[in-house]
Structure prediction request, 350 residues.
Amino acid sequence: MSDGGIPCLWMRGGTSKGAYFLAKDLPADPGERNALLLSIIGSPDPRQIDGIGGADPLTSKVAILSPSSRDDADVDYLFLQVFVDQPLVSDAQGCGNILAAVGPAAIERGLVTAEDGETEVRIHMVNTGEIAIARIQTPGGKVSYMGDTEIAGVPGTHAAVPLLFANVAGSMCGALLPTGNTVDVIDGVEATLIDNGMPCVVMRASDFGLTGVENREAIEANASLKARIDAIRLKAGPMMNLGDVATVSVPKMTLVSAPTAGGAISTRSLIPHRVHASIGVLAAITVATATRLAGSPAASLAIPPADGRYVIEHPTGIMEVFLDLDGAGNIKGAGTVRTSRKLFDGWVFL
Prediction:
């Protein structure tokens, strides 16, 4: 820290933006750290006018990096969701979009030494205890953000960042299906309570009187709909071994409908009180997994691909994820391709 300033990388990861810090530059005490981050991001304030947040959950995020505490990883990554209009900072979940820039940030900050061409970064996702592998383009031993990969929700093209996940089933809930059921009924609504990297409650949009193709603004303007969905979320939390979820941002509430753009399924996600402009990486993997559960809301609507590559439709386009299946159709691993970009490297002040 210098004159009240803290070293900070501001980066886009996937369809999110966040502040990336080294753990050594922040207070070790979680309470002090969280108070500092609320000030830096500018919460609680719907505009976050006095901080660097973007007045949206997707741009009010923090990644904290440190040397790996495990032999099977190169860097530790703790994700924190800074609430926009509440004085809350949550570590109750991971974030697969912010994850996309962890590899580049770790190289930029000297935690990982880049190789010439491509550098594989093994990332310990501290929130869930799992390992992700990111492949970063590093021509000449330096991170390159330039490339021809396009992802929905981000203008232009950038360098591809393939992300691979294994053993993420039950990452936060202890089991892929924490209740042991493919379908649970909450407040009269059929739902799949599932965690394949991100705890999700997957429900039919039609059970809420929706077509499933409503835009983000239409859903956010429907206060009674959001209240009904949140009531289900509060009941689902303890059922998923997450406890009282009133002040955390999991589980993700995901409304599914039949695809309309050639994908496997269409989604609208709440995180938890705002509608996601797209869908989180691990949430997309979890929804894809839900489509494979016979009798579930997602399976009844999905058009499953033949090759394990699932196109998940969302409000601003599509996200492609893949499920690595064994000969019996069991899921061995999952992955996706994201992009990232360094926006600034400097000091952020209190």
Notes: The chain has a mean pLDDT of 95. The longest helix spans residues 223-239.
